[in-house]
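Reopening this one. Same input as before:
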Amino acid sequence: MSELNSEQALVSGELWHQFCDTLKRAGDQVLRPEAPADAATRAEGFRYLTRLLRIGLEMHVEFADPDHPVFFRTSHETAKIGADNPDNLYQYARLRGDRDYRIRGQRNTVHYLSFRTQKGGYEGDGTLPETGFLDTNNLVVEDDGSFEIIVSQQRHPGNWLPMEPDSNAVLVRHTFHDRRAEVAAEVTIKPLAADVAHVPPEPEEIAQGLLRAANFAEGTARLFADWAQSYLGAPNELPPADQALCQSVGGDPNIFYYHGYWQLEEDEALLIEVERIPECETWNIQIDNYWMESLDYRYHRICINKHNAHYNSDGSVTLVLAHRDPAQPNWLETEGGEQGTLCFRWVGSKEQVHPKVRKVSLAELGGN
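Same output, byte for byte:
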C-alpha cells in the first residue's frame, strides 16, 4: 500500500479505512491453507497480530521521533517476533542516518551485550540489513562499569557504532545466562547536537506512522508465516538455517541459527542430542508456537541454555521435548500444543556441532 501524501485522507476518514483494511488483510496470514486450523493455533495467530500491531504502533507512532529517540522493548513476554530469544532483553530506538547520537550506559552483569544499527523494515521489503555492529568483545568499559558509544556515519575514536545514510534504528540485545541473577545494562540515547525543542508531530507524520504500523503487522506476519511454511516438509528435524537469510532480517552476526518444525502425539517425545559443546559465548534452544512466538517462558520451561543445562558425563547434552515429564533433566515443555516451531543457536562459536534429532516414544524414556 502506498503511503499517504495528503492530510485530506485524515480529514475524510480514508486513512482509518486504509489502516483497518491492512489489518483485515493481515488476518489472511493466520488463515493460510497450510497453517494448522485448530482453534488454539488460530487463537494464538489472531492474538499474535494484535501483538505485532502493538509493537508497530510504538515503533512508528509513539517512539518514532529520531530527534528525541527512546529505547523501548520490541520483543518481550507479551509481544514476540520471529523466534524471539527468551534469554534476551531487546531494546530498540528510531534514528536518522544524517544525525549523530551518543549512547550512554552502565554495563552491569548481563552475560552478553550487542548493539546493531540497521535499515529497512518489515513494513517495507521485509529485510533489516545491518549498517553497524558492536558487542562486548570490543566494547570499551570504564572501571566503574560505564561506557559511551558514538553512533554516526563518520568514524569516531573510542566506542563507535557505524551508520549509513539510510540507517533508521538501533537494536540492543542483552543476552542472559540467568535472568534472575544477572542485571541488564542500562542504556540511554540522545543526539549529539544541541537539544532540539520537542514539537507535537504533524498530522501527516501520524498518518504515515499509522499506515507503517499496520504494514508492519501484515509484513511481519507474512514473513514468518512463510518461514513456518518452509519447515513443514521436514517435521521433527532441526537443520541449519539459511544464515544469510537470518542476517538479512536482523539476526546477530555472532549467531549460527537452526530452525525447524515439531509435531508430537501425546505419547511421543523429541530427542535433541548435541554430542559436544564447542567454545562459545553461549548456546540455547527454545520452543515456539506455529507463528514463531516463543512459548510462555514466564511459567513454563521452554528454553535451555549453556548455563542451566544438565550435561552428560562426557560433556554432551540430551534435550527432550514432550507433553509430559519424561523423567529426564532437560525437559522442554510443549505447553499443551500439538505442533510448533523451534530454534537452536550457537552464539560466538567458531564451529558448529549440529544437533541430532529423532522422535521416540515417551515410554522409551521412562516417562509417565
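So the earlier flakiness isn't reproducible anymore. For the record, The radius of gyration is 22 Å.
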